[in-house]
Structures are given as structure tokens and as C-alpha cells.
Amino acid sequence: PDNITVQELANRMAVRGAEVVKTLMRSGVMATINQAIDADTAELVVAEFGQKVKRVSDADVEEGIEGIVDQAGDLRPRAPVVTVMGHVDHGKTSLLDALRESNVVKGEAGGITQHIGAYRVDIGHGMPVAFIDTPGHAAFTSMRARGASVTDVVVLVVAADDGVMPQTVEAIRHAKAAGVPIVVAINKMDKPEANPERVKTELLNHEVVVEDYGGEVLAVPVSAVARTGIDKLIEALQLQAELLDLKANPERDAQGTIVEAELDRGRGAVATVLVQNGTLKVGDIVIAGAQWGRVRALVDDRGAPVEQAGPSTPVEILGLDGVPEPGDKLWVVDNEKRARDVAEYRQRKKREQSQLGAAAARGTTLEDMF
Ligand code: GDP
Ligand code: MG
Predict the structure, then answer these.
(1) Which residues surround ligand 2, an ion (CB under 5 A)?
(2) Which of 49, 91, 234, 307 has the fewest CB within 10 Å, making it most exposed?
(3) What is the dihedral angle through the alpha carbons of 242, 259, 347, 29, rounded to the nearest 10 degrees?
(4) Has residue 359 got a pLDDT over 90?
(5) Which residue ranges does the record assign to the Tr-type G domain (predicted)?
(6) pLDDT category, 107, cuts 50, 70, 90?
(7) Across all residues in the chain, what is the average pLDDT?
(8) What percent of the chain has pLDDT over 70?
């Protein structure tokens, strides 16, 4: 059953908390303003105040937001979204740097990219490739735990001088659990002691069978420091994307996932969203988790303002009324009222959950209250 704290109920009826406590007391229910009462009790209280009850369910508020179904004829190929994983010190950060700099489509500011949590690499032929700019497994698993799947392909970085290590195995497990294909980057090939054959045989023990061994996993020797093999790695990712037949409908309202977000002193709430379907435009009304807003500006991964962002494009978004959380889904909705309703509803739910959590932490149970 849905529970609500006395304070929240009072807020919703626009009456003082103490009035609700008193009314409850008259009905024989002893509850402080921070305690939760069940929906039936709340309904009685509302009736006592002569107000109408409208029980709103998740479905009522949120239905329709995820409702668009794409027709096959509207779908177009889209860029793959890639997360880099691997053992510590095997070169994840170095590889992400090398990839970013391999971009032939340089920005005006001397090709300096800004760090907005994700970026796209375009090597001039084939599909661009979008990279999530946070290496490591935590981001991947926490996003997935929240039901957000943004990654199409995992680049597994294995140092050629070190071979398969515990976090390599962990990364393989994560990718397999998520059903996401792996492309192996055998890194540090510039080192004299590099031994790519050893890496490939060690991977066999973990059911990662590269092409040389009759498997389907693409493996590319690279050096993040010497900047070799980077284009070959991109090409492997393009090939993998083709095999996956990744598609999206650029013509519809945007849907995406928040990759990172923060409160910026000058600009307010700033969130990096990875657009997954549709096209996000300046002026769109969006909901991101429990926040909403009208898109005031979009900034691409090179710091340039853009009017719109299509599928598999990371973009910074300004204009949200608060800071959403990584993993939150973003949707475009028809009108401000709807956006505000859903955002307020979600905020209320979050507040109630944390209040209920706090009550539970204090050792208060529903039985204690009645
Ligand atoms: P991460 O922990 O996986 O993010 O690894 P880093 O990118 O921080 O790299 C760890 C160390 O390995 C750093 O000292 C890098 O300079 C070095 N390194 C990374 N890639 C290469 C490479 O291709 N060749 C060589 N020789 N060193 C590398
Ligand atoms: Mg690192």
C-alpha cells in the first residue's frame, strides 16, 4: 500500500501539519508529522478536511512518456556507444585520450575538446563512434542497476605486457551479463615485452574467443601512448556496430540517458545527456528523472553551441530546474504542465521514500504508529 507522511499530506492539502496531527488524534491515530500513515487513513483525513481525494498512481502520471513506437521505415543506422573497461593501469584513460585526439573533425579552439562525460570520434569514413568518457566498471554497473543501458559495445583494454588480470575478468563478466559485445584493445604494443599472443590465449580461458582462434571477438593491437592502431580500433567498432545493426529514428522526439550532471555556478544545472533516439532540440520541454525544463541551450562535445542533437550524440543541456542523476532517463514531452506534473510527482515520491527510509532507520514501524 502507498504510505505518506503526515507532513506531506498536510502540504498537499495546504494545511498546517499540526492540524493533521490533531485530526488523526481525534480518530485515535497517534502520529507525529514525520511519521507515515497508509493511504486509507490519509483518505479519511482528507475527507475530514472536506477536500477531495485523488489517488494518483505511477501509471497515471508517467504513462505516455515512453509511448512512442518507431515504425521500421523510420529507422536509420546510428553510431555505436562504447564504454572502455579493463584492469587498472592497463591504459583506459590513456586510450580515451588517444581516441578523442584522433578525431579528424577538429573544433575551432585548436581541437581542444572539453570534458562533458562523453564524446564522438569521427575518423572521416564510416560511422562516428560515441565514447562514454568515464572508464571503469562502476559507472557501467550503476547505470545498469538503474535500468539504463547506454552501452552498445565494450572496449576491453588489456595491457600486452601484463595480460588478463582480475579486473579484466570482472569487466568480461559485466559485459556478458549485460549482453554487450566486447572488442579487445591489446594495449601497450610499443613496449618491448608486449606479448599479444599471450593475451589472446588467456582470454580463451574466459570464453572470449578472438578471430585468430576461430571466434568472433575482434582484437586490435594498439598503443595509447604511441598513438598506433587507434584508427584500426575505430574501424573494428564500426564493423561491430554494423553487425549489431544499430538503428534509431532521428525524426521523433528525443529520448536519452543522463551521463553526468552538476550545478554550475554560472550556468545552473548542467547535464550531459546521451541522446539515444530521436533528435533533441533547443526549446524542447524535457523531463530528466525528477527534473524538468525547457532546453535553453545545447553544447556539443567540443564546447560549441548546437541547435539539435540526433541519436548517439552526447550533448550538454542547459535549462533544467535541478540536477538530475546519472542514469536518469530523459524524455521530451508535449507541454510544460505535463513536464511539471511528472517532475513534481517524482520529487514527491523521492521525498516520501527518503522520509520513510529515515523513519525506518529510527526504528519506527507502521505498527508502532497505530
Ligand atoms: P588506467 O588505469 O587503465 O586508466 O591506465 P592509464 O591510462 O592511467 O595508464 C596507466 C599507465 O600506463 C600510465 O603510466 C600510462 O602512461 C601507461 N600507458 C598507457 N597506455 C600505454 C601504452 O600504450 N604504452 C605505454 N608504454 N604505456 C602506456
Ligand atoms: Mg584511469
Answers:
(1) 92-93
(2) 307
(3) 90
(4) no
(5) 77-247
(6) very low
(7) 87
(8) 88
